[in-house]
Design brief:
Length: about 190
């Protein structure tokens, strides 16, 4: 939502039509659509606890019945991938790799290991693995359409998500403003 808000401000300043909250597409909105691919898609799932990862692999396998899904937990599985130089991931030859290690760990993971990873589409999906596995309750879909899914999630798990939803957007705003000033030579 902070990204969508920043885009809305930019589009307003450029006198472009605004974006609708309905244009937002979260990971749990698009991942089930991989089942529409009938040509044997290969999906790797990296992240979450071993049990959550296994349940998510099972759920995604049911969605993509013509594909193959393999998982590595965000704990020992991730460490094993790193220590082996990602050989088992390259051998699997995934088309799509879902990385759910949480922000910013999943982005740092990609940056740190990019050159060792196989050619594939990589998607950072945060807690979607836990949501697909049933370990975390998925927000009602209508909350996303109204732009308040974050509020539902905050109320459901305030201890874990308070900083993400009440502090991080302001950090993002600060970084964005600083970037704009630096770009214009003001800082």
């Amino acid at each position: 939502m902070p990204i969508l808000a920043a885009l809305a401000i930019r589009r307003f300043r450029r006198q472009q039509p605004s974006l609708s909250v309905s244009q937002r597409c979260g990971s749990t909105d698009w991942i089930p659509l991989v089942g529409d691919i009938d040509d044997g898609i290969r999906i790797a799932v990296i992240g979450a606890s071993p049990s959550s990862n296994s349940s998510a692999v099972d759920a995604i396998s049911r969605m993509a019945e013509h594909g193959e899904v393999r998982g590595w937990s965000g704990y020992a599985g991730k460490e094993a991938l790193i220590s082996e130089g990602f050989e088992s991931l390259r051998t699997f030859r995934p088309d799509l790799v879902l990385i759910g290690l949480g922000m910013p760990i999943q982005e740092e993971f990609l940056l740190d290991h990019w050159d060792a990873l196989p050619t594939a589409v990589f998607a950072t999906v945060g807690g979607a693995i836990d949501q697909l596995s049933g370990q975390q309750r998925l927000a009602p879909r209508w909350t996303g359409k109204l732009g308040i899914e974050w509020l539902w999630r905050l109320a459901s798990d305030p201890k874990r998500l308070a900083s993400r939803y009440l502090v991080e957007p302001f950090k993002l705003m600060r970084v964005t403003v600083e970037f704009q000033f630096e770009r214009r030579g003001i800082l």
